[in-house]
Amino acid sequence: MFAIAPALGKANLSASQLKLLAGKARWIFRVCEAGFPTIPTIAITRAAWDELQAERGRRDIRLRTHWVACLFKLVDKDGKPPMLVVRTSAASHNGGLMPARIGIPAPAAPEDAVDPGRPLARAIKQAFESYGFSGRTWTGGRQEDDRARQIVLVQAVAEGAVEQFLTRNAATGALGPAPLNGGPLPRLPEGVNALIALLDAKAGRHMSCLVAVKDGQVQFMSARSVQASAGAELEAAVDRVERRIWTPHSAVSRVDANRLALMLHPRLKSSEGVSPIAMGLGVSPGAASGIIVFNAEDAARLRARGKHCILVVNETGPADIEGMKAATGILTARGGMSSHAGVIARITGKPCVAGVRNLSVDAAEMVCHIGDREFRAGDRLTIDGTDGAVYLGTLPLAQPQIGGAIGKLLGWSDASRDIAVRTNAETMESVQTALSFGAEGVGLARSEHMFFSPERMVALRRMILSEDEDARSRAIAGLVDYQTGDYSALFASMKGLPVNVRLFDPPLHEFLPRTDEEIEEAAASLGVAVRALRMRLERIAEINPMLGHRGVRLAITYPEILQMQMQAVLAGARAASEKQSEPVAVEVMVPFVSTASEVSWVRERAMAILDNSGLTRSERVRFSFGTMLELPRACLRAGDIAAMVDFISFGTNDLTQTTFGISRDDAPTFLAAYQRKGVYERDPFVTIDEKGVGEMIEIAIARGRAANPRLKIGICGEHAGDPASLKFFAGLGIDYVSCSPYRVPIARLTLAQASA
Amino acid sequence: MFAIAPALGKANLSASQLKLLAGKARWIFRVCEAGFPTIPTIAITRAAWDELQAERGRRDIRLRTHWVACLFKLVDKDGKPPMLVVRTSAASHNGGLMPARIGIPAPAAPEDAVDPGRPLARAIKQAFESYGFSGRTWTGGRQEDDRARQIVLVQAVAEGAVEQFLTRNAATGALGPAPLNGGPLPRLPEGVNALIALLDAKAGRHMSCLVAVKDGQVQFMSARSVQASAGAELEAAVDRVERRIWTPHSAVSRVDANRLALMLHPRLKSSEGVSPIAMGLGVSPGAASGIIVFNAEDAARLRARGKHCILVVNETGPADIEGMKAATGILTARGGMSSHAGVIARITGKPCVAGVRNLSVDAAEMVCHIGDREFRAGDRLTIDGTDGAVYLGTLPLAQPQIGGAIGKLLGWSDASRDIAVRTNAETMESVQTALSFGAEGVGLARSEHMFFSPERMVALRRMILSEDEDARSRAIAGLVDYQTGDYSALFASMKGLPVNVRLFDPPLHEFLPRTDEEIEEAAASLGVAVRALRMRLERIAEINPMLGHRGVRLAITYPEILQMQMQAVLAGARAASEKQSEPVAVEVMVPFVSTASEVSWVRERAMAILDNSGLTRSERVRFSFGTMLELPRACLRAGDIAAMVDFISFGTNDLTQTTFGISRDDAPTFLAAYQRKGVYERDPFVTIDEKGVGEMIEIAIARGRAANPRLKIGICGEHAGDPASLKFFAGLGIDYVSCSPYRVPIARLTLAQASA
């Protein structure tokens, strides 16, 4: 028990007392210490209170005497004991805490100061009791320890009007008194600004502030921090740097990257007071509101009229791509993170909720059900692809603000970052977004994604469905031109920044027709009989396509695909290099290898094609060759592999799937139960599993660097956009990460924080 | 150049000369050395020959003088130079070698002995040239080295009749002169038996022997080893032990386990002169001949009449199980090693060739095509499930001979083996086979395989298809009785040997109806509407079932299944323990874990069920709990896991799939190309990949033992039946391996060889 704001003079706290100052107590002491008029306040810890009570049983009064002396510190120079207020002072605000108990008479006798039957001691006892054990998961010894340090404040009752306000605007972050919870701003004297500046500098957060105003004079009563919007916090952080309260470095380290993420997609203004009608998997972030449609034509029609729509389907396939592009958001009954819907939605930047178990769609009848509710075309829904929630009707959305403050903060962050941030992108649109967000290269251009348009799909399907090498070579010939143009545009737009092209790695089933109607259409466009197409489809169907004929396995079994891709990449690089002053930096990456022999097989052929291209003799194109490590065996054999490549890049999505033996698409059936039952703490597809997948990566890096000290190392799985994972990656000694365009700012910020 | 059998006296070779004795030279020297009359023979190495020729260029005669002196060693005491024979003496026989050149006159002058224009030197030159570089893949320095050591023999021409015979019968292994290649046995004097005994003891192999017989006297000319049948080699080995030529230990170490494997299934007597009409994947070993059938009824009908049949289908499903049981062999157009056909075939011990790409079956029309050929029910085929070959018509088969010799050899092998051999089995039939082959326990009883009969399948499907816990619990109730009886019989048959029961790990898709007809049938038997069943099937369909909702994930999401299984296992153990004197040794194993938290979750519940059973207080049942390590993450976290279990068992099939990222079912599309192009040396699903999967296992063993020194460690993947893999496993310090029943003898032999 001690005074943190004595009525006379200043508090002079010991180091151990200073350590006890949690919550409001901290700010009352700081403001008083800085010389701002402050309502007299004393603090008592639970440990002290318990000891005071124990002393009563022993009929001792040593501690009570000290306590009464403390209470006298609330007495002003007029010598009259004031009426008292009892407040909690929790480290974090909590609904169950006792509200301030106001107007308690000062104890008439020393015994009254500790007798729980008397008003003051009763209020203190109740305040401590209101702390309970809630609010945090205390563990082990700390629980008792923290409990002993809980504080209750006893203040003199203030004279004059009590006013409450925020130190900064909750929406804009602007400094100065701001209204609380949308209420009116109280009239406050000029003097309050000094208090605000003081508190903002000391706390570095939005504060809710309580003052007493009398005769134009302000007396500080108490303050606690409040959570402002991500945007307001960011603006405030930048403002503090500009006011020289913070260094740029402190601003960078104090902004929460997870909250920054919320600003980079359209989002729900607030979901308070509305409950989702269903939950699925948030597979592509951002929120979208719109009219329900069940097919591409309706989506296109609405889009043409400038209306937002949500495409609602059981699952998506190649036939739905146009509909997905036209829709504002996508909602599916089946599928997960790497379902067709998820992949396309993330590429196109559309919010998507997938795998809503109680959704069933009858597209033919243009009706869907979510649980018992029936929805028809024209009804409205809002989806939140960040958390997977589905809401009834149209909820208000906030658009992403990539304004001045975020730019400044990220600019500062770049100064203290030594790991490059690239992006996973292949379309011009996504590359431009990523560049505007500060991407320093393309870390993963998924070459097969360049075929996501109806006319190209025909050529691609023709190739996939080829029965023999001749047919495949003919199909391939039709693909080179598209690709050359795409690569040329991609390289040109990156103006000399490195572009990593991953060789063809199609999850075949995503490119193939599925429904009877699609098969008939595909047969017509391919010029084959429906029956023949069906037989071929059946023949190439895979039981576990994730572990099937893909990645480097395609390049080795069908070397003509490798040949075509290398030629297109090199022709694109040549074309781009002729139009710009910077040399084109091309990286070709072989996916899904499990042995060094696969790497050497592809390398030998790729290098022969490069040598024949004549580009090796040019200074205009810088070519490097590498591989993607996304299988446990590749990690173990990284030493052999590293000796043959310029770079390796970890594909953490597939590495997580194979290390855990979990298909991400099929995981929703048990992952929810796992988290509910506490078997997994975190979804390993969201935050990297440090103890398993992380160790695989560490083994690979150690062996790779030992074999090839000049090896460049990157991470290109989706974990590269997750702050917790990025912190882990930052400690691995890697050269770059590559994430989706909207995640580039998060990676820039988190890596700066981690390297600080 | 030196005499290995001089006409007078004995050869007295230096150590370096002894080292040069390869092929026939070795046997000629040994026989002569042992005092058996031998045709005079001298040997010249290529190095010596080359030097002789080089000397001619230098007009030197030092070496030539030595050579001529050597040639004089062929001269008998009559002093007359004999006519000569020039032979090669390759370490391994090879079709391209020069046949013996007979009747060459002895050189008339010293110069003639080295002049390639003269008959002797010409024959020697041609003999060296015929070695070429063929026959082996020589690598690096050894190539030149081995070449320099090639030998050519110069012999005196024998007088009398030249006769050829084998030292042991090629089919039975019986000692004594035996005919070669099915020809008649020449008349041989009694004296030949001493030579045969001598050679058999020296070579320890079947030898093809050349002698000259004159006046009832035998002179040894030359011999080379020949490959006899696996059975004959085995009989010979045992015979040598019984004749005290070999120790049991030498017999064990000299029998080739791979060849032993050929004896344990029906096999083709010979495939010489017949070409397969198609090749598929040999997924269940052994050969089978029979009449083609397309459905279970026809198979059953033929079986009832005692006829063999081959079930030919596109792929098998639950509806085909009865047909598979009735058929002698199974041939499918689709699927691989772990396809339904492969799994069931191996369990039931039926030869099976799967994934024959150019086979198409029209079951309704009762016709199939292999390439251009058409086959109808009643036509005959022979399949070889060991190598995947399909032959026209009925080829003669040899039945497995588990006779006295194999029993003796394996008995000896057990003495020098310290790793136990268990079996993967759950049916009474396979357990009995395994016991008769010497299995020392069950290392993997796949509990879900106990449902492979039509009436049980209904109950199992009802459980899999349950919509909620209530429905599932009802379905489960119907399963307990079956299981209790099965476990009781299983434990009883093992008479106290350990039985490892793996908790339910169904690859769901194998148990579910697929075709329209099967779905209709299943709906009827389950009492649900076809449409509802279809919707449910669609909902639980998985994209990558291998990485889906299986193993421990089922136990955690549906704890009622765990409860049912534990109760059935414990009830079965109690029942068995009441009928026998030995305590029942039960091991319960949790499959497909990737985290220690999964193990602890299941362990806690399993132990609670055990405690409630009262069996812990009984001495009649010994219970242990463990887990299967078959995912890379589980291997990395083996330390955490080992602390909670009594044993771990490596599931090398799934561990290979996940470490490589290869679905074994889908691998055939690229694995053949990989082997053809030299990317993989060996199929990692046949022989353990030591550098990748092997390291995972080593990491896990090191971490597991460190955390729990009393940890019991086993291997239960199919690699545990492969000799090359077993040699690797033997070095890991494991306690047991568990393989399919027919592989038990191979494991016993290989592990004995490895620990010697």
From TrEMBL, chains A, B:
Substrate binds at residues 446, 502, 630, 651-654. Keywords: Kinase, Magnesium, Metal-binding, Transferase. This is Pyruvate, phosphate dikinase. Its EC number is 2.7.9.1. One of its GO terms (molecular function) is metal ion binding. Mg(2+) binds at residues 630, 654. It is an enzyme of class 2 (transferase). PROSITE patterns: PEP_ENZYMES_2 (PS00742). Residues 411-754 form the PEP-utilising enzyme C-terminal domain. Catalyzes the reversible phosphorylation of pyruvate and phosphate. The active site is at 340 (tele-phosphohistidine intermediate), 716 (proton donor). Its cofactor is Mg(2+). Residues 308-388 form the PEP-utilising enzyme mobile domain. Belongs to the PEP-utilizing enzyme family. It comes from the Bacteria.
